[in-house]
Amino acid sequence: MFKLPELPYAYDALEPYIDKETMELHHNKHHQAYVNNLNAALEKHPEFQGMKLDELLLDLSKLPEDIRTAVRNNGGGHKNHSMFWQIMAKSGGGKPDGKLLQEIVSVWGSFEEFKKEFSIAAKKVFGSGWAWLSLDKSGKPVILSTANQDNPISIGQEPIFGLDVWEHAYYLKYQNKRVDYIDAWWHVVNWSYIQELFDKKF
Amino acid sequence: MKRSYFWLAIGSVACLASLAAVALVLNFDVADNRSVPVGKKFVLPELPYAYDALEPYIDKETMKIHHSKHHQAYVGNLNAVLKDHPELSGLSLEYLLTHLEQVPQDIRTVVADNAGGHYNHSFFWQILGPAKFSRLGGSIKQEINKAFGSFEKFKQEFGLTAKKVFGSGWAWLCFDPANKKLVITSTKDQDSPISIGLVPVLGLDVWEHAYYLKYQNRRIDYINSWWHVINWERVQVNYDNAIKAR
Q1: Chain B residues with CB-CB distance to A148 below 8 A
Q2: What is the pTM of this model?
């Protein structure tokens, strides 16, 4: 049975960039619903119940047809949001250093250029989705976006971090002004966590 | 004046007035014609009611942002992308959405997304109206009963379809001209049913921006409220137009 992870901080910790009410709804209602729906889907096929989340999402074609979409959507939602809470912090912002910065600079020339490109990708997502920094199949850092709750591992990539641009992630505070939300979000990006994970994994 | 001529005159005026009203109601810049004047830009249509007219079911702030920001953006983006393509100038919204293969590949997605957004929202404002005038009747009520067994069953099925949309999209009641029947369907993002040969009769926006300020994650509460502010007279007009042979 999958479980809703606890936030590593209080609901108001990311104020004023991300408001308390949004954090509470986003975690307690939206993410909780993905967890509930994922568990409900897997009850129909107990042979899949022991599997890890990444195993389920790595090859969606291996899932039984009657639960494939539900697992893709809700498993994806659970994985994406579990990552999202971790890559943010009150003490976030600034920029990375070390190996991660080197990788970013090698592809985009500078952190500022990467920030600009990532923000454009996040802005351009039409409908619901996420913007990602991930490693493609050849290990090269790329910016990509996915629709709905799709995760880059389902297309053979390795996500490093992502930004939720579903309207529920920002509408109470920013309404239609997604660009303002994206600009604010950079202030809470937890680079030390992202770097630690990057150094360990890659 | 002779009494009979008097009533004839009154009757004629009444007929002309109702024809004019229907023409006015149909004219929301989504032309049934194939073309619009060359060089004409698409325009945000005015709402047929004030921003607070759908309270308490749909809140004033949502109506204002939804119309003047979201819908306006679709119109603006559509005009911007078509600006450098004079070969597409003079084509109506409906023509673009039913002939997307004629739109150059490099702008096709942007055109589909924003033309769809403009079409869908123009349609949406028209089928909404103040609760005090929302009254189901006419042949549309009978057709719905016939197609779905009862109005309650229709409401249930439509509500379920709207609830199940994952991510952004719309729920629709459409007339399917190929099979000559009413069908419930959903589209993702700003995809329009006309692009797949269906004629929309009633539609519900379930993008989160349509309900988040008042209902947050509670989409079901939004759907239940929406039933109170449907302009069934407009829905009847949509249906009557749909069943005429094209």
Answers
A1: 166-167
A2: 0.91
